[in-house]
Amino acid sequence: MPRTTLLLLPGLLNTRRLFERQIADLAGIADCVVPELWHHESIGAMADAALALAPQRFALAGFSMGGYVAFEIMRRARERVERLALIDTQAGPDAPEATARRHGLLAQTKIGRFHGVQRSLLPQLVHQRHIDDATITQPIFDMAQEVGADGFEREQRAIIARPDSRHMLVDIDVPTVVVVGRQDQATPLPRSQEMAADIATSRLVVIEECGHMSPLEKPEEVNAALRRWLAE
């Protein structure tokens, strides 16, 4: 039986390091490919770059911004996707206040005030139990520095301009898992519940005591959900 290629799409200010535990744990059953999305200025360009790295058929998993890219891949190459995982993401657009915040961050970056992920932002990203766990937080800081100000600008502009994908959900017919931390503040649980309700072939996995960064915060639970999904 041929091995599965798993295309793992990271989120805003994330690199391959986000998925280190998934790549290691799933190595026996999947070849993992992680594109560097921050080099591209639109969700469409990110999708094309990811598709260029993938074989003709593959499993697709998107985390946060990577979920937006996953929906774009489904628009462009649905026939190539064997199964879909949506991790701490959403199908709908940002609320106006969230878009305004993104524009404000872009303005600060333009005048040289990009400082990566600040410690003060951690309560929005991880569960309160994980704020002082350096094994979880240090990779977040390090990834942001690797992506840098230019990458951050490109990603934010792509996110702001992304299309609404909610109408697509009812047409998804591949095995799908929707994974979310119960305390995710960035893409809250109701967004995942809505996606799972609209995708007939989906299963919802809610991870307890977990914020937005579930692949880092609760890798064992995320890996178990992905392993089961890959076997379906």
Multimeric organization? single chain
CATH class: Alpha Beta
CATH topology: Rossmann fold
Distance between the termini: 14 Å
| Spatial strand arrangement across the major sheet | 2-1-3-4-5-6
Characterization of this structure:
With 232 residues, the protein is of the alpha/beta class. It has one domain (4-94, 157-231): Rossmann fold, CATH 3.40.50.1820. Helices cover 44% and strands 15% of the residues. The chain has 9 helices and 6 strands, in the order E-H-E-H-E-H-E-H-H-H-E-H-E-H-H. It has a 6-stranded parallel sheet, with helices on both faces. Helix 1 (20-25) links the parallel strand 1 (4-9) and strand 2 (30-33). Helix 4 (96-110) packs across helix 6.
What is this structure's SSE topology?
Elements: E1 4-9, H1 20-25, E2 30-33, H2 43-53, E3 58-63, H3 65-77, E4 81-87, H4 96-110, H5 122-125, H6 134-160, E5 176-181, H7 189-198, E6 202-207, H8 214-217, H9 219-231
Key terms:
232 residues, alpha/beta, Rossmann fold, 6-stranded parallel beta sheet, 44% helix
Put the structure in a nutshell.
With 232 residues, the chain is an alpha/beta fold. It has helices spanning 20-25, 43-53, 65-77, 96-110, 122-125, 134-160, 189-198, 214-217, 219-231; strands at residues 4-9, 30-33, 58-63, 81-87, 176-181, 202-207.
